[in-house]
Amino acid sequence: MVPRGRRRPGLVGTMARTAVIAGTATATSRAVSGAMSAKQQQAAAEQQAALEQQQQMADLQAQQEALAQQQAYLAQQQAMQPPPTPAAPAAPAASGMDDEMVQLQKLAQLKEMNLITDQEYAAKKAQILGI
Q: Which of 17, 34, 111, 131 has its CA 20 to 30 A from that of 75?
C-alpha cells in the first residue's frame, strides 16, 4: 500500500518528466558539440592561415633564388662578351659626303640604343665632321 501523502506520478506524468529530461540533455549535448565545433573550426582556420603564410614565404624565397640565378647568369654572360672594338678611324675627306652620312646614321643608332653616351656621340660626330 502506498501512503496517502505520497502518490506516484501517473504514466503521463512520468512520460512528461522523461521528455523534459531528454530535451534538456539533447539541448545541452548540442550546445557542447556546437562550442567544440566552433573551436575546432577556429583552430582549423588558424592552421590554414599558417599554412598559406608558409607557402607564400616559400614562393617568395623561390622567386628570390630565381632572380639571383638570373643575375648571376647575366653577369657571367657580360663577363664572357668580348670588349667592344674601337671604332674605325674617320674616313678622309676625299671619301665623300655619303660616307660621313652613313657614319653619322650609325652613330645616331648607337646613341638611340643607349650604347654610347651623349658626350661620346658629340665627340665622334665632331670627329666625323672634322670640327
A: 111
